[in-house]
Amino acid sequence: QKEVEQDPGPLSVPEGAIVSLNCTYSNSAFQYFMWYRQYSRKGPELLMYTYSSGNKEDGRFTAQVDKSSKYISLFIRDSQPSDSATYLCAMEKAAGNKLTFGGGTRVLVKP
Amino acid sequence: NAGVTQTPKFQVLKTGQSMTLQCAQDMNHNSMYWYRQDPGMGLRLIYYSASEGTTDKGEVPNGYNVSRLNKREFSLRLESAAPSQTSVYFCASSEELSGLSDGYTFGSGTRLTVV
């Protein structure tokens, strides 16, 4: 079993809808959580970073962490075709350790 | 502002051939990484270098070697390519191993096909 699980999708939504993505993890030692976005034929790029349980908002993006359930989420409001990409969660056990990536969820936003 | 530069972008090798993938970063980052990405497998860490002068194995190091040439450059070598090494290879760098300050910065990838 992988330490970090993510549904591969694809998740197809109409333009303007809310996109809901999530990752589950098995190791309670994970403390730092990130979301990366990867466009086709490009490298991943950091989208958001959260440290503790709760919500963090950045424009149309909201990251949510529930450490008690070992579950993190990313919500994209008012989705646009330009949001079509693969979204990877990543997490770290403690400062000084490497990131562990989820497998990524492919999102398609249809005009 | 180049970030992480990988060369080549595409490569086709015959089984048994060798090649070196080059990676350079201009952000003065201490840590560098090599990943491979395959459908359904996500990003898998091959090797990493926490700082100049050090290298360590990741999740899937077999069949690969690395060299941290200096602080800027981190190369990945396939000594005898096999079809199982057909993949997209990404180099990444970060200020520190944790990536907490600004995350990992990735290059645009090398698409390698071994026939």
Which short descriptors sum up this protein?
heterodimer, A: 111 residues, 6-stranded mixed beta sheet, 5-stranded antiparallel beta sheet, B: mainly beta, 7-stranded mixed beta sheet, 0% helix, globular
Description:
The complex is a heterodimer of chains A (111) and B (115). With 111 residues, chain A is mainly β. Chain A has strands at 4-6, 11-14, 19-25, 32-38, 45-50, 54-58, 61-66, 71-76, 85-92, 100-101, 105-110. In chain A, the strands form two sheets. In chain A, strands 2, 4, 5, 9, 10 and 11 form a six-stranded mixed sheet that branches. In chain A, strands 1-3-8-7-6 form a five-stranded antiparallel sheet, with no helix packed on it. In chain A, a hairpin with a 4-residue loop joins strand 7 and strand 8 (71-76). The mean pLDDT of chain A is 92. Chain B has strands at 4-7, 10-13, 19-25, 31-38, 42-49, 56-57, 64-68, 74-78, 87-94, 105-106, 110-114. Chain B contains no helices and eleven strands. Chain B is mainly β. The A-B interface holds A 6, 8, 32, 34, 36, 41-46, 49, 88, 90, 92, 94-99, 101-104 and B 4, 33, 40-43, 45, 48, 58, 90, 92, 96-100, 102-109.
Main beta sheet strand tally, sense and closure of chain B: 7 strands, mixed
- Characterize the quaternary organization of these chains: heterodimer
Cα radius of gyration of chain B in angstroms: 13 Å
Structural class of chain A: mainly beta
Number of helices of chain A: 0
**Strand tally of chain B, please?**
11
Helical residue percent band of chain B? under 10%
Helical coverage of chain A, percent range = under 10%
Arithmetic mean pLDDT of chain B: 93
What Rg of chain A, in angstroms, do the CA atoms define? 13 Å
Q: Helix and strand succession of chain A?
A: EEEEEEEEEEE
| Strand segment count of chain A | 11
The biggest beta sheet of chain A is recorded as: 6 strands, mixed
Major interchain interface with per-chain residue totals: A-B, 25 and 24 residues
Measured distance between first and last alpha carbons of chain A: 37 Å
H/I helix tally of chain B? 0
